[in-house]
Amino acid sequence: MGYIEELREIVGTRPLILVGSVVIILNDRQEVLLQQRRFPNGSWGLPGGLMELAETTEETARREVKEETNLTLGKLNLLNVYSGADQYIIAENGDEFYVVTTAYFTNEYSGEMKAEHSESIQLKFCNLEELPDTIVGSHQCMLNEFKKQLG
After folding, report:
1. Run of H or E including 146
2. Contacts of 73 (CB under 8 A, 6+ apart)
3. N or C terminus: which one in the chain shows less Cβ crowding within 10 Å?
C-alpha cells in the first residue's frame, strides 16, 4: 500500500494537499507525448503522477514517466509550479484533493515506449497545435504556457 492509500484510510475522502509532477516530452518533430488515461473517462494528459515519501519532484517525474511509458528521461527543465483553488480535484471515487504540480519539459529520453495498461489506454505523440479535445484541463493550461515559451 502506498503513502496516499495509507492517508486515505485515516482521513477518508476529506480534502488533502498532494504534490505531483508531470513532464512535457517532445520528440524530434516537436510533438508532445500524451497519455490517454483510463481515469477519468479516457481523457488525455501528460505523463506524471503523485509524489511518494522522501522523493523530490524531479524523482517523482522520472519514476512516474518510467512507470507509465517505459521511457527514461534525460535533463529535465522546469516549466512552472501550479497550485491554488483552481487545482482542486474530486476523483471518481469521491476523494478530494488540492494538487501542487511541478511541470517539467524535455526532449531527452530513451527506451522503448510502452503504455502501462492499468492506468493507460494508449500513448501518442501529438502536434502541439492539434491536441485532443478531451485533454485534462490543468494539463491544457500547462501546454498553453509551454507553447508561449516556445514563441
Report:
1. helix 137-150
2. 23, 25, 61, 62, 65, 66, 106, 108, 109
3. C
**Ranges of each domain in the chain:** 3-150
Pairing label, strands 16-25, 96-106: parallel
Whole-angstrom distance, CA of residue 11 vs CA of residue 145: 35
Model's pTM, two decimal places?
0.94
3-150 maps to which CATH number?
A: 3.90.79.10
Cell of 41: 473517462
Give the mean pLDDT of the chain: 95
Q: Tens digit of pLDDT for each residue in 9-54? A: 999 999 999 999 999 999 999 999 999 998 778 999 999 999 999 9
Name the β-bridge partners of 50. 20
